[in-house]
């Protein structure tokens, strides 16, 4: 079995024990893995974190906490910008709609899923059979365990595992620093290194109004990592595309990513313009703007990677190498296995004929509005919930329903002017992409221009009222049919066309590709066993690497920065935004030990979704909190490299130094290190 450098976002039930033993002399035990699994936390807002005390304290990134910070803020109280600290548990702020998931176990259900799909089935029949069996598995698991249960596809269809999670929905904010230090350097330094960000936040999980006492938590290291140390990143990477075929990657390069970047730039410009209207507007739009800008920069880096001939050449060689293993006996194997690659190419060619309509209407890119999302769910729940759970669209199965209702009935504030600006922008984007005479555009705009249509929809809707939403959800199809709400009416009018596009995608693209990838996976397993990790799926993974700097244009970059270099960076940039340190930091400089390590890098394999992931040492102690990749790491969506690519993390010592010296948070620091 080959050792693949430090590559791999590994399944915890298929860990890289042999690789770690061979390369680093480290024995990865089942106990180590179990503790890491049950101390790790997944945020429903799209990030990771970990328990760090016996009384339910959780660490993550400030930018993962941003959604909660904004929802807890109000005019005159900007927690996102100014920060927050609860010195006592009674002062901790309950988040309106934050759900945390903690993995309890994984079960391989591949045989049961595959048995439901018969060889003679047409794509639509196969998709329906697979949807039904995965729905049954999830429902049975939920009934048996009471745990959130998700069947996750791995290896693009080569395997299926059942993940069971314990949920926490009473989550309270404990600490967040000012945005100016959490996101120091802003978009200029985003995906760059050296970095100087205190990108951390702390929450506490509660049950029955009492702090949770987790069975495992990560001990906070007061020392942190040294150069060349072996470290592990345990978190929930979102999506990678390393096992996709060359044809699929070329489709991303030529179709998906250019469209994505056009959309993100449009949204970013609109949100920036809205933010410039005043400080309150800036506060309201801050989370959306950060997410859009971050995704835009990441997507741009991915496109640059796919435009690099060397990257595609590497993928071509990998594909050829795998096809060279076709002589390896694979049972059962169909005649002419190369046709599986051809099937994926054909599916991508077919998808190009309706991808934009699918993205705009069914995925919802034409409706950048929380209120429209609520309206669509209300309409579809009325239609889906009378069906058996296994026959529903996936998001409405019993296993997902509680979490979905929790989000839809959130009391978090929504802002009419912001919703109107976002919807106007996305409706305009719809018309720009499809043309003013396209039937979907005509149906959506209903005889008005995007500005007037957005005004009509947002002014007329009652969905700002949580009570109104609850009536619709509880009342089902009858309540939806009786509703005159303009957003409900719009969602109803578009639903038939949206569902048709979804069905086309499922039967013409998703199912043929899934079947082809499943056959390719058989070849890969026969050739390489489990020495190749599956692509990321926002499920818990284990990555490993070493702490070390790298060289760029002849300059050697150190493995960590310091508080001193943060002040030097601010001075060099004349303390102008986004390099303006908070007043607390400027005034407190003399209190700090300026040689304290601030941010550090390692070769561990991370991606988006790993934000907030605990970085652990050999003993399983927390030595850092992952928050970013550098620009050289953006190609890791497609290929792994460790020459210059690094993930970036906040050093554990930096957090303690800042809490104790600047934030008057000795109680929090004491909880982290186990002080009584």
UniProtKB/TrEMBL annotation:
<keyword id="KW-0645">Protease</keyword>
<dbReference type="GO" id="GO:0070009">
    <property type="term" value="F:serine-type aminopeptidase activity"/>
</dbReference>
<dbReference type="InterPro" id="IPR019500">
    <property type="entry name" value="Pep_S46"/>
</dbReference>
<dbReference type="GO" id="GO:0008239">
    <property type="term" value="F:dipeptidyl-peptidase activity"/>
</dbReference>
<dbReference type="InterPro" id="IPR009003">
    <property type="entry name" value="Peptidase_S1_PA"/>
</dbReference>
<dbReference type="InterPro" id="IPR043504">
    <property type="entry name" value="Peptidase_S1_PA_chymotrypsin"/>
</dbReference>
<keyword id="KW-0378">Hydrolase</keyword>
<dbReference type="GO" id="GO:0006508">
    <property type="term" value="P:proteolysis"/>
</dbReference>
<keyword id="KW-0732">Signal</keyword>
<comment type="function">
    <text>Catalyzes the removal of dipeptides from the N-terminus of oligopeptides.</text>
</comment>
<protein>
    <recommendedName>
        <fullName>Dipeptidyl-peptidase</fullName>
        <ecNumber>3.4.14.-</ecNumber>
    </recommendedName>
</protein>
<dbReference type="GO" id="GO:0043171">
    <property type="term" value="P:peptide catabolic process"/>
</dbReference>
<keyword id="KW-0031">Aminopeptidase</keyword>
<dbReference type="Pfam" id="PF10459">
    <property type="entry name" value="Peptidase_S46"/>
</dbReference>
<comment type="similarity">
    <text>Belongs to the peptidase S46 family.</text>
</comment>
<keyword id="KW-0720">Serine protease</keyword>
